Amino acid sequence: MPFSHHSHSGQFCKHAAGTLEDVVREAIRQGFRTYGLTEHVPRHRVDDLYPEEEGLSLDVLKSQFDAFLTEAHRLKEKYAEQITLLVGLETEYITDTDLTALDALLSEHGTRIEYLVGSVHHVGGIPIDFDRPTFEKALASFSDDTHPDSMAAFLNAYFDAQYTLMQRFHPEVIGHFDLCRLYNPGLRFRDYPDALERIRRNVQYAVRYGALFELNAAAFRKGWDAAYPGDDVVEIVKEHGGRFTLSDDSHGPHAVGLNYHRLVGYARRVGIEALWVLASPSLPDGASAVRRGVVSHKVTGQWWEDPFWKGREQT
């Protein structure tokens, strides 16, 4: 049962740590049975590079991603008897150029990319999860005479970008759905009716095509007392029959399974009774096709009673 669909390594992500094989070995050590390898897609403008990437060329980022796919599939084969590794990617949507480039990337690599984690990390071309000052810069970019409430306009833009991404690519996993409130975890979407309407629209669309909504444990290490998404979004997903999965969003072996004991507690608190996992399309009963090279499969029984969860407080 134990699984994660979203991870990174320092080998292929400059703000992470460790090699991809380090990450896989740690997942095996902890008893994960399915683990998704999903490095970020390369960015396509020098202006969009993060500070730690200063001096890298766009060609280097492209080559780095190609090398990730090669290494991920090598590890998938090497450790096949110990763990099921899924090879995917995490999206970026900064400008329309990223969407066009992702189309090309998917065409180029075909079945080597088995699934997508659909994430938005920028609003108005500015990162929203790098640090608080950069987030405040993104928020301030929506403050003008046209948008007297900058937060409302910011949230609307975030969820519109998320919707566009889902429409174009149908990502199998919706990544950290409400990352837009990372630095405002107490924000309630009911106070922003237009954003709330967009959330419902996005959830309904994702449910219709069969996406899974990740419960992302990274929110705990960012200071939240909940996973992504918060309980108000969870209620909307449940209301529309959405399906949940788990992710640690690890950025190195040190973060594999981090706060998973809190993740299971949160899931139980908000009333999530069923979980789903991506798997190879060979699974028979209980599986439903999404796109690309995986199907979603419902975890049988009471998932929180799996032996994996015993003693997780130390992890």
From TrEMBL:
InterPro entries: Histidinol_P_phosphatase_HisJ, PHP_dom, Pol/histidinol_Pase-like. GO terms for cellular component: cytoplasm. Pathway: Amino-acid biosynthesis; L-histidine biosynthesis; L-histidine from 5-phospho-alpha-D-ribose 1-diphosphate: step 8/9. CDD domains: PHP_HisPPase_Hisj_like (cd12110). Pfam families: PHP. NCBIfam families: hisJ_fam. Belongs to the PHP hydrolase family. HisK subfamily. This is Histidinol-phosphatase. It comes from Polyporus arcularius HHB13444. The lineage of its organism: Eukaryota, Fungi, Dikarya, Basidiomycota, Agaricomycotina.
